[in-house]
Amino acid sequence: MNATSSIVLTNFSISAAGPDDHFEENYLNVRRKESRLYNDEEVFALPDIEKDHPHSAEWEIRKGSCRRLVQYLRARHSSPQILEIGCGNGWLTNQLSNIPESQIIGSDINLTELQQASRVFSNNPHVKFIYGDIRSGMLQDRYFDFIIFAASIQYFPSLPEILSISLERLLPGGEIHMIDSPLYKFSEMVSAKRRTLVYYQALGFPEMAKLYYHHAFRDLRFFNYRILSNPKSIKNIFFHRCPFPWVCVKNK
Question: Is 33 exposed, middle or buried (0-12, 13-18, 19+ CB in 10 A)?
Fold first, then answer.
């Protein structure tokens, strides 16, 4: 997609030529089959959700990772500029705005859910949603204290590429945070890819396996990073915390 001039519609902007129909159609079909498309009232309430919802246990985990992330960011900056890449329906973008004096941009190439985010959180003056791909050159005039990837890094084919592009948009001392996404040992990659293909085949959308990417810890070896939460630690296992690592990447 090629970047064009931004078209502002209240708290919503389009910074790309048009929707990525191939990705969005496949992604939404899978989300619908998984019961992961929510109505406006449900999105507004997230990460709180009815106990009888099929993904209520998952949302309890995401609520915990959200709480820890907000506490971390709040302690490190009094008025942060934050970009969430792959924000989907915007629930986390909205939660991040609980940090005092924060300004948050949520971006995605899923136009359907992004428009829902803009609609649901239209009364929040601290958030704005932008349709587009950061790899296309959008936001060249904007710099951020924090860039967040929450359950989204697996939709980028190259982890080093997207991290390098994101680092260019960070202010001095800024950080990238990746949460709620898997990272594998290199020896686990083949079996992980096989499981993904079997999963999407069972759902009836095998083509989605080609749009879901598996990243390894070794992809981080040239970056200045820390693992803030290891899912295999005794503490995380004991408290049944998030099964995914929380990784922070900083400017060198």
Answer: middle
213 belongs to a structural domain: yes
- The number of domains in the chain is 1
Burial bucket for residue 203 (CB in 10 Å: 0-12, 13-18, 19+): middle
Contact at 8 Å (CB) between 177 and 149? yes
Q: What angle do CA 147, 62, 182 make, to 5 degrees?
A: 70
The domain that holds 231 is classified in CATH as 3.40.50.150
Q: How many CB atoms sit inside 10 A of residue 115's CB?
A: 17
User: What are 36-64's pLDDT values in tens digits?
Assistant: 999 999 999 999 999 999 999 999 999 99
Rounded Cα–Cα distance for residues 215 and 191 (Å) = 13
81-85 and 103-108: which strand pairing?
parallel
> Is 1 part of any domain?
no
Question: Residue 157 and residue 160: Cα distance in Å, rounded?
Answer: 9
pTM of the model: 0.91
Per-residue pLDDT of 95-125, as tens digits, reads 999 999 999 999 999 999 999 999 999 999 9
Q: Phi and psi at residue 69, in whole multiples of 5°?
A: -65, -45
2 within domain boundaries: no
The answer as to whether 191 is a domain residue is: yes
Q: Are 143 and 169 in contact (CB under 8 A)?
A: yes
Distances (CA, A) of 234 to 62, 182, 202, 240: 19, 18, 33, 10
